[in-house]
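Deviation from plan, reported transparently: PXG complex.
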Amino acid sequence: MTTIANHLPTSELQAIDAAHHMHPFTMGEELAQKGARVITGANGVWLKDSEGTDILDGMAGLWCVNIGYGRDELAEVAARQMRQLPYYNSFFQTTNVPALMLAKKLAELAPGDLNHVFFANGGSDANDTNIRMVRTYWAEKGEPDRQVIISRWNAYHGSTIGGTSLGGMKGMHSQGGLPIPGIEFIDQPHWYAEGGGMSPEEFGLERARQLEAKIEEIGPDKVAAFIGEPIQGAGGVIVPPSTYWPEIQRICKKYGILLIADEVICGFGRTGNWFGSETLGIQPDIMTVAKGLSSGYAPIGASIVSDEVANVLEKTEFNHGYTYSGHPVACAIALENLRIIEEEGIIDHVRNVAAPYLKQKWEALTDHPLVGEARIVGMMASIALTPDKASRAPFAADAGTVGYICRERCFANNVIMRHVGDRMIIAPPLTITCEEIDTLIERARKSLDECLEQIRSDGIYEAA
Ligand code: PXG
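Because the crystal trials were delayed, the predicted structure below was used instead.
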């Protein structure tokens, strides 16, 4: 059998990594000098690196390991399925049992009449499916001019050509000549950074009404769909004002455009319900799911589609699909993951235990001199770092400079928190205990203290 060489010295593993492994969203040269941290194992909320250090994973991998690491049941289901049927496709009038059972389960769990599932390998390619699906839907309905999808600046919908185009990250668009034609953007509902003197409620309405203005500008008969994350994740855990989603929903209904909720981060318990759409009061026509669907134990994503959309698509051949759509091993793992979430009451644990406890500790971080606001819904949370709490001012230094320093301090203190610009974010495994939350907060506070000390001594503790 292949030996996975955990026994090599760290420096050797790092040298091989630097020589051959290209990392996503990473400055290769800088990482090669520094050496990547080599993660060799994990259990619960704890990662272990090649030096034997235990690290508290405040990000559940990349927002995905909802049930925590080290669940043998998933390994066993995977091995069993590999022996039974490691692969078969669902292209040519065939199916497999894990795929059809998972589709049924997702139809049960998803809100409203979202009863049909198109499988993908992750969130990006599920969103690629959505682009082609909504455009094909309108063409089949006899409205082929309805091609435009409206999204939001600073949204994240993945990193394929389609996903990057739907996302509103300008730094991503600039690499590869994106977005593709027919994607339009409105501003994000980010009150803390962009709300100025408005109340959050006024601001939420103002941002939602940009959708109506954009539809009128493009022409209502040319708009296919609107896409949004219930709560923006990669953009910085931006919780929209309470007025935002109801107004978006009203506008989508008024113009008859499809609403796509990108649940890749918000799904499977993250916000305290099965889906973020339930927490935020959204009734989508299509949901994108991935990540927590398998708790990251296997790559899998899906589009969950309404009866209306599926009924229209059913009448044509939708020339779309991936070799691994409905992969039996990934589907079997996802089914076992959903069983664990359900039978172990993990969403109740979030709602009744972990989220209320974390909320209290997280919001208390606003007593720290660097923290301007703390936002949290369920088990996704952010804090804004600021040099001036009263004015919500950004730092004079380039956006992200202080956030990066803080993230480096977290890394050194063996807790994983991400930074997005100068916001620090967490999304730990949903199974985290109160004791582990205490450890997380202790390490976060220590990192904030050290960050403050460093920016003072670097002379960058000042407002723009
Ligand atoms: N939609 C949303 C809302 C996401 O958060 C994707 C789609 C794409 O999924 P895949 O499985 O193709 O990666 C995502 C992924 C970060 C980070 O740094 C976030 C994601 C991926 C990688 C990094 O916050 N989200």
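The chain has 17 helices and 15 strands. We consider this an acceptable substitute for the interim report.
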